[in-house]
Design a protein that fits this description.
The protein is α/β, with parallel strands linked by helices and about 200 residues long. It has 7 helices and 7 strands; from the N terminus they run βαβαβαβαααβαββ. The chain has helices at about 15-30, 45-60, 70-75, 95-100, 110-115, 115-135, 155-175; strands spanning about 5-10, 35-40, 65, 85-90, 140-145, 180-185, 185-190. α4 (about 95-100) packs across α7 (about 155-175).
Length: about 200
């Protein structure tokens, strides 16, 4: 069974806190164990800068952290310590990563090149990330927002993000042993059912 774990839920449902609890439990199992948080947020405005600062302050001191807002495959494969099977990696969060790639901030090269270039970049980054996740021996806890249960967005760009995030969740789940849905701070966990 895969050691990876996907945690989904709405905003402020307790996703990150649950991921931290799983990571703390991992650290307590062995003195060889380590934890690295891969953060995908980009500080595009003051409110987001405050959120990022709050996450940094709340993060346990014994967790290492790196920032990878665009290239998660490189983050999983890059640093030698991340390849260590004794190191748990927490990716927080897939929602921001998908948004960063599919809706680049104004002035980014992909945004200037148009929708086709953005979709091409997304397809490449997505495939590379899924391959890196499948290859990784050590556990990965992936945090993401479940945003596909609400009203269908009016804008084409936002609909694309919702659709692609939903597809990504399905493929990521197939790389995981367990999936948790968070509601009101409570985890509802089950073993992943493999596609037949």
């Amino acid at each position: 069974m895969s050691p990876h774990h996907l945690i989904l839920g709405g905003q402020r449902s307790g996703k990150s806190r649950h991921a931290e609890r799983l990571a703390q439990a991992w650290l307590q199992r062995s003195p060889q164990h380590g934890v690295t948080v891969v953060a995908t947020a980009m500080a595009s405005d003051e409110e987001m800068r405050e959120r990022i600062a709050r996450h940094r302050l709340d993060r346990p001191a014994d967790f290492d952290a790196i920032e990878a807002p665009l290239d998660l495959a490189a983050a999983l494969r890059g640093a030698s310590e991340l390849g260590d099977p004794h190191r748990l990696v927490v990716i927080d969060c897939l929602t921001l990563w998908v948004t960063n790639v599919l809706m680049p901030m104004h002035g980014a090269a992909e945004a200037d090149a148009g929708t086709d270039a953005v979709l091409h970049t997304w397809t490449q980054r997505r495939q590379a990330f899924l391959a890196a996740l499948r290859e990784r021996e050590g556990p990965v806890v992936l945090v993401s927002n479940e945003i596909g249960m609400g009203v269908i967005p009016l804008g084409a760009d936002v609909r694309r993000v919702v659709d692609e995030l939903g597809r990504l969740h399905q493929d990521v789940a197939q790389c995981c042993g367990h999936i948790t849905l968070m509601a009101a701070g409570q985890p509802f966990t089950q073993q992943v059912q493999r596609w037949g």
